[in-house]
Amino acid sequence: MDIPKLHYISQGNSPKEHLENIQKACSSGVELVQLRLKITSKKKILKCAHEAREITSHFQTRLLINDYYKIAKEVKADGVHLGKTDVCPTLARKHLHTWQMIGGTANTIEDCESLLDKQIDYISLGPFRETTTKDTVGPFLGLKGYTAITDILKTPIPIIGVGGITIADVEAILKAGISGLAVSQAITQDFNSIRTFNQLLSASSTAEQRHTFE
Question: Measured by CB atoms within 10 angstroms of the end CB, which terminus of the chain is less buried, N or C?
Fold first, then answer.
């Protein structure tokens, strides 16, 4: 399964703001959006997920729903992202359509190895640095943490860096063996940054291809 290299994790003080930001991210060229609503009722999340699906479908952007795998199935999202305290990916997989992807959150090498046994399509590894968008996070990994984990974890499954990442970090993070990025704050502050993120990420995949064919 082809996983886009840049994920926008939605932000906003209300479902309406999340949807407005998703619309801006899609129109600025992001290929994948994760709807991440943590503070509202399931009924509101379902309504918001349906609207997010409409927006992302219009732009042919992929949509993941954070945590609520049954809602992801109902709105025909492209998949679900599961945190460490959410349902086990193996259980979610039984409920989802075969074409829907599952991403899992990891903070340690043990988390990564555990996820690899659970039919996930990508691993979201972080936090890279301190971030205001999440209350409970594990230790910050930084470049040293990323390198230590990617050196041991030889897997074809994409590893997506997450947690306070900015444009200035992209090159070094990719060199540390991470294959893509999930960004929230930096994109919400400037949707034009999506173009720059995409350029830096595609430059890295071009370099990989060059290296492979030499």
Answer: C
Q: Tens digits of per-residue pLDDT, 30-57?
A: 999 999 998 779 999 999 999 999 999 9
Q: Which residues of the chain have pLDDT under 50?
A: 213-214
What is the SS3 string spanning the chain?
CCCCCEEEECCCCCHHHHHHHHHHHHHCCCCEEEECCCCCCHHHHHHHHHHHHHHHHHHCCEEEEECCHHHHHHCCCCEEEECCCCCCHHHHHHHCCCCCEEEEEECCHHHHHHHHCCCCCEEEECCCCCCCCCCCCCCCCHHHHHHHHHHHCCCCCCEEEECCCCHHHHHHHHHCCCCEEEECHHHHHCCCHHHHHHHHHHHHHHHHHHHHHC
Mind listing the domains of the chain with CATH numbers?
Answer: 6-213 (3.20.20.70)
